Amino acid sequence: MTTSTRGTTRVPAVLVLEDGRIFRGRAYGAVGETFGEAVFSTGMTGYQETLTDPSYDRQIVVATAPQIGNTGWNDEDDESGRIWVSGYVVRDPARVPSNWRAKRSLDDELTAQNVVGISGIDTRALTRHLREGGSMRAGIFSGDAIGAESDLVARVQAQPHMKGASLYEEVATKEAYVVPAVGEKRFTVAAVDLGIKGMTPHRMAERGIEVHVLPATATAEEVYAVGPDGVFFSNGPGDPSTADGPVALMTEVLERGTPLFGICFGNQILGRALGFGTYKLKYGHRGINQPVQDRTTGKVEVTAHNHGFAVDAPLDRVTETRFGRAEVSHVCLNDDVVEGLRLLDRPAFSVQYHPEAAAGPHDAAYLFDRFVSLMEGQRA
Description:
By secondary structure, the protein is α/β, with parallel strands linked by helices. The protein contains 10 helices and 20 strands. Residues 1-7 have low confidence and may be disordered.
């Protein structure tokens, strides 16, 4: 929840963490107050895509890159219709943006969308603190919203935790829509929106797929009414343990044997549908420089991530599930977190990261081709 008025960089601001740590800086974007889970993102670029990613709902994002806003804000790179982060924390904001596509500054866009931020703090120290203590509840207060420190800490501590939060319906589309295939139509895919990014259906459309994006509450009848050759489950925010509806829907898709692909939240949904548990990571993976190994090929990919929860599945063996054999297909090389699952007896797989690469490297683009291959095989 955010209240705000337009401010300037001379307005004082404070970032308050639930453990009592306080960082003092200047207002950036709107002036007022906001609350969320403080997390850090290690991407050197791509702040516009990060801010408009629905998976960041109710999170205060700390940019580890020291300079932010250099390329301003354009009208092409949004991943959704609005900024979803609860707040933004930067060290050294650009005074003047410089890019041929820029329409306005990042500061102006944050202000226009009532996003409260803070600048001028030691983001390296803050990131180290979050690595040691874990992601935690936080608040940004600027201008007249700044009060006694003890009162601000108490207000932060009264906020809900991310663990147990059900958020995917908040960010998903309310009405179905279609992204047409680019060129000749080859397949139809039903994409269940749990917080989908705009580039994801575009990547499928580039491969001749007509994508029907459906609300998070879509039923099996609504999914199969579009005549899908495959079903896709998107990324999204919150705790996957709360997503009983999407798990039930995916279970029915698996029972029918329809080719299935999931990313991020969709990977966690597949994990649950297969009988695995999920858990909250200490500080998560966020950024566009995370090393992942595809265990089916041995290839190491640099990938884009945004997740604070993970699937609890064994790395050392194939698991028997109600849908046949399943295995961990991808693993993070930093900490051995499960980064992908695949069924060996049915056409279904998922990854924990973002192959649409918005922003990010294109190492994982082949996953969309793998999905196409599954649909080709099913059709044959």
